[in-house]
Amino acid sequence: MPANLTFDALKKAVAAGEIDTVLACFPDMQGRLMGKRFVAQHFVESAWEETHCCNYLLAVDVEMYTVPGYKSASWEKGYGDYVLKPDLSTLRRVPWLDGTAMVLCDLLDHHTHEEVAVSPRAILKRQIARAKAMGFDAMMATELEFFLFQDSYDALNDRNYQNLQPLGRHNIDYSIFGTTKEESVMRAIRNGLWGAGIPIENSKGEAEVGQEEINAKYSDALDTCDMHAIIKNGVKEIAHQQGRAATFMAKYSHERAGSSSHVHQSLWKGGKPAFRDEKDPHGMSDLMRHYVAGQLAHAREITALLAPYINSYKRFVVGMFAPTKAVWSFDNRTAGFRVCGENTRAIRVECRIGGADLNPYMACAGLLAAGLAGIERKLELEPAITGDIYHAKRVREIPHTLGEAAALMQKSKMLRAAFGDEVVDHYVRAAHWEIEEQNRVVTDWEVQRGFERL
């Protein structure tokens, strides 16, 4: 996309007074963009080489609480610094923020200048390198669903997120007139992201009241995850500018369907789709069959990367388009893994397990690790399931809780071999903390259920 900046173009824009701020960002454990706002002149003079941040940023929860029990950062170690190393290939303008550019950064150890092992971007890059060593380019796309609300973030916060009113009033899935009513926000999102160098293809109404979906072009795995993080941040900022709010919670209400982040995947070799075999009845190569078999074999072990919060598991409800079974099928939206583009150049596997709350780097790294393990072991693909898979008997189920998923991840030999013990233990600790907090906090549901009746 031409909106991406070269460093020379950035320097010229700064000299001309067109850009006065540079955002140096990195994805944290939750996939959120964290970092600093630089005076642009200082960035082009020196900060483009490196800057620093506190290492607690990969050891906090969603509330920015310093979680005990991490080996990489703690009070005992004094919470030192990481190096933020800008990846200048990610430079871009941010059209919805005046005079602003953005760059994504890698996190490096302050002493060794090696990439921080538990950094999400580094975790994904290692799996991409693993695929490259096998001769493959990992190609992916993430579909993002979210809800738009009538009121602003501050207004909703001030009333404790009660009486949430979606911007839409009824299901407008694929409706042109229905989405026209929300076009002031969605058009700003589409065009703003396009201007930031994100190749947005389309937006549409989704299958629940107030729900939207936005899609960016299929790309290499790292670029896809970088775009995903920028899209989420951009949606929130643009909604905020218009006095609205957006949420990427997997499930904001038990009365509503949840929001997903389906991940489409394929491997390419020499610019050609390695998943395609024109001689196969469905167009699937043996390589693709091994890849999908690996994801099925390890689906339960990687679920904590696709559904990382307590709330994530509220989305897995029969009949609401979120899967409950970790099986595969051809073009069947009730399966955890759906083969799309049958008998075409675009043949790929779509993982439907992940919610919109996932960290894209962790989710894609886990999926890629599982698929590559299937290729390495030449796993045989089990038969496809057909029909209403919600009611299929004696088939592999998606874990029902974060606790179950975390226990499976902790025991996963595949993930420990692919990620390393340090990384697995780090993200298992994150899951355990979520569970500890849930067990500690008294919820509205408990008060409503028990205040008078017990």
Please describe what this structure looks like.
- This protein is of the alpha+beta class.
- 35% of the residues lie in helices and 20% in strands.
- It has 14 helices and 15 strands.
- Strands 6, 7, 8, 9, 10, 11, 12, 13, 14 and 15 form a ten-stranded mixed beta sheet that branches.
- A hairpin with a 2-residue loop joins strand 11 and strand 12 (272-273).
- Helix 3 (120-133) packs parallel to helix 10 (360-377).
- The radius of gyration is 22 Å and the shape is globular.
- The termini are far apart.
Fold blueprint:
Elements: H1 7-15, E1 21-27, E2 33-39, H2 40-47, E3 51-54, E4 81-93, E5 100-109, H3 120-133, E6 137-149, H4 153-158, H5 176-180, H6 183-195, E7 200-205, E8 211-216, E9 219-220, H7 221-241, E10 245-247, E11 263-269, E12 272-273, H8 286-297, H9 299-306, E13 328-330, E14 337-340, E15 348-351, H10 360-377, H11 402-410, H12 413-419, H13 421-440, H14 444-450
Parallel strand pairs: 1-5, 13-14
Antiparallel strand pairs: 1-2, 3-4, 4-5, 6-8, 6-9, 6-10, 6-11, 7-8, 11-12, 11-15, 14-15
